[in-house]
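Listing S7. Sequence submitted for prediction.
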Amino acid sequence: MATKIEIKTDKASSMDQTKFPFSQAISYNGMIYCSGNIGIAPGTTTTIEGTVTDRTVQALKNLTAILEAGGSKLENVVKVNVFITTMNDFAAMNEGYLQFFKHPLPARTCVAVKELPLGTDVEIECIAHL
């Protein structure tokens, strides 16, 4: 029977679990399920300054570190969910996104939401195989 394994790394942002009760990722049955990541640099607790493109890049750097800590890599991502606070940021988010993902691109959903944690404008989660 497969066992859930928590993936943790200090090479990606990590929030106080008493306020944000979730794992960075869980590995289960050959897959890695990454929690949503926002543009927070490792070792800090605030979002980076700059543009939505900059925060997209930082979120994807965090996801890359988490996947590598779990024995996978960004190229193994099969599904991505992106949350942005306005569809006006769609092109800017894609600018950062395409710095990390190449063809064949993972399946993806992008939705606009009213609000995201810590007042950020983009959050990204993904699923990858080992």
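Caption to Listing S7: primary sequence and predicted structure tokens for the chain studied. The beta strands are 5-7, 25-28, 31-37, 77-84, 107-112, 122-129. The CA atoms of residues 11 and 47 lie 15 Å apart.
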